[in-house]
Amino acid sequence: MLAKFNDKFSVLTHHPDFGRLFLRLTFGILVLFHGIAKIGHGVGWIAVMLEAKGLPGLIAYGVFIGEIIAPVMIIMGWFTRPAAFIFAFNILVATLLVGLPKLFTLTKTGAWALEGEALYFLGALCVMFLGAGKYRFPFRNE
Question: Alpha-carbon distance 104 to 82, whole Å?
Fold first, then answer.
């Protein structure tokens, strides 16, 4: 009985291109909020952290590529795989700059302190490996 239910449910819900679209939209929109915040508050604080590590502060402006341009490309389905790779690199650098001390830390509720960063990084890799699918603008095959 459960196997029959599973088979019918699988047939009804087997829409991999819609799944790709849903993942792209969810991921891209959530990342875009971070980029919009950087527009509003600036990236000076990132430049300070980079300079403290001996890196040029100018690199901080790369966050606009990783958190605005790349998510828009992911949402639209334009060069989705490279855009997802760019964001994965962006979140990896951000985690190394800010989150590294929390690598082996749990929150008060027992969650990994870097689970948000991990979710964004792994989500970017999923988008990169899956690609845009057929639902994108302008509509064309990948």
Answer: 30
Long-range contacts of 93-102 (CB under 8 A, 24+ apart): 94/63, 95/121, 97/46, 97/49, 97/50, 97/53, 98/49
Q: pTM value?
A: 0.89
Per-residue pLDDT, 67: 97
Read off the tokens for 99.
């989150």
State the average pLDDT over residues 78-89: 97
Query: Are 84 and 40 in contact, with CB atoms under 8 Å apart?
Result: no
Q: Which amino acid is at 23?
A: L
Rounded CA separation 119/129 (Å): 15
How many angstroms separate the Cα of 16 from the Cα of each of 53, 59, 62, 74, 78? 43, 37, 32, 16, 18
Q: Which residue has the tokens 């291109």?
A: 17
State the Cα–Cα distance between residues 85 and 62, nearest whole angstrom: 14
pLDDT of 21-71, one tens digit each? 999 999 999 999 999 999 999 999 999 999 999 999 999 999 999 999 999
